[in-house]
Specification:
By secondary structure, the chain is an alpha/beta fold. The protein has a domain of 173 residues: Isochorismatase-like (Rossmann fold, 3-Layer(aba) Sandwich), CATH 3.40.50. The chain contains ten helices and eight strands. It has a six-stranded parallel β-sheet, with helices on both faces. Helix 4 runs parallel beside helix 10 and helix 8 runs parallel beside helix 9. This is Cysteine hydrolase.
Length: 250
C-alpha cells in the first residue's frame, strides 16, 4: 500500500461537525483575554504547508475533515492578509525534514508516521530542487504573503515546538511580546508553539478556526487542542473576532 493510501485508509471523512467543539455555556475557568498593542503584537503561523492543508498532501486522509469543517485554509489566508493590510509583523514557522532526519534512532508515534509517509520531506537544506509544489512547500495561495520580502520565515522546527528554531529570537529582536497564533496542526505543532512561547514569557492568543487536527480512532486532535487552548492560552478567538480586534487596536 502506498504511503498516502495508508493514511487515507485510517479515516473516512464525515461532514458532521462535533458539538463538543462549542465553547462551554458556563465556563469554570477564569475568563481572561489578550489586549492587542500593534507595536508589540505579531501573527505567527505554524506549518501552512501542502502536506497538511491540501487534498494532495500526504496527511489529508486524517486531517481533511477538520480542515474542511473549520475552513482552515481560507481562515489562514485571511489572517495573512490581515497582517499585511494592518501592518502587523507576520512570522511563519515551517516544518521540514531532510534525508539526514530519517536517520533518527527513536521516534514518537506521529514522528514515525510523518517519516514513513515522507511528510515535509526536502532533498537538502541548501537546495530548493524538487521543493516547489511538493508537500513541504507552502500552499500556493499563501505565497504572495509569505514571499513578499517582509514576512519572517524562521528556521525549521523538527518535531513540534519552536525550541530548535529561531522564532523566539526573531520575535524578541522586533520587540514583540504578544502573539496571535494559528496554523497546523492543532494539538501538535500549534499547541507546542503555544506552550513554548508561554514558557518564554510571551502572551499568546490562539485563533481556533485557523487550525485543525487529525481525527483517528486514537482520538480527535482538534478537540484535544481546544481543551488545552482554553486551559493555558491568553485568549481563544475566531478568525472573525481576530480581524475585528486588530482593526480596533491602537
Amino acid at each position: 500500500m502506498a504511503a498516502g493510501e495508508a493514511v487515507e485508509s485510517m479515516m473516512t471523512v464525515k461532514p458532521s461537525p462535533n458539538p463538543a467543539y462549542a465553547e462551554p455555556a458556563e465556563p469554570a475557568l477564569p475568563q481572561i483575554d489578550m489586549e492587542i498593542d500593534r507595536s508589540r503584537t505579531a501573527i505567527v503561523i505554524t506549518d501552512p504547508q501542502i502536506d497538511f492543508l491540501s487534498p494532495d498532501g500526504v496527511s489529508w486522509g486524517v486531517i481533511g475533515q477538520s480542515v474542511t469543517e473549520q475552513n482552515t485554509v481560507e481562515n489562514l489566508e485571511r489572517l495573512m492578509k490581515l497582517a499585511k493590510d494592518e501592518d502587523l509583523p507576520l512570522f511563519i514557522s515551517p516544518h521540514h525534514y531532510y534525508p539526514t532526519d530519517h536517520g533518527w534512532q527513536f521516534e514518537g508515534a506521529l514522528e514515525r508516521l510523518m517519516h514513513s509517509i515522507g511528510m515535509f520531506d526536502r532533498k537538502d537544506p541548501y537546495t530548493l530542487e524538487g521543493f516547489a509544489n511538493s508537500g513541504s512547500d507552502f500552499m500556493p495561495q499563501y505565497r504572495q504573503y509569505i514571499h513578499d520580502g517582509e514576512t519572517v520565515i524562521t528556521s525549521t522546527h523538527k518535531i513540534y515546538g519552536p525550541e530548535q528554531n529561531d522564532l523566539a529570537l526573531q520575535l524578541r529582536k522586533r520587540g514583540i511580546d504578544k502573539v496571535i497564533l494559528a496554523g497546523m496542526s492543532a494539538n501538535l505543532c500549534t499547541q507546542a508553539h503555544l506552550y513554548e512561547l508561554l514558557e518564554q514569557g510571551f502572551e499568546v492568543a490562539v485563533v481556533k478556526d485557523a487550525t485543525a487536527g487529525a481525527i483517528v480512532p486514537d482520538g480527535d486532535g482538534y478537540l484535544a487542542a481546544l481543551i488545552n487552548f482554553r486551559y493555558v492560552s491568553n485568549g481563544v478567538w475566531t478568525t472573525e473576532e481576530t480581524v475585528e480586534r486588530v482593526s480596533k487596536a491602537l
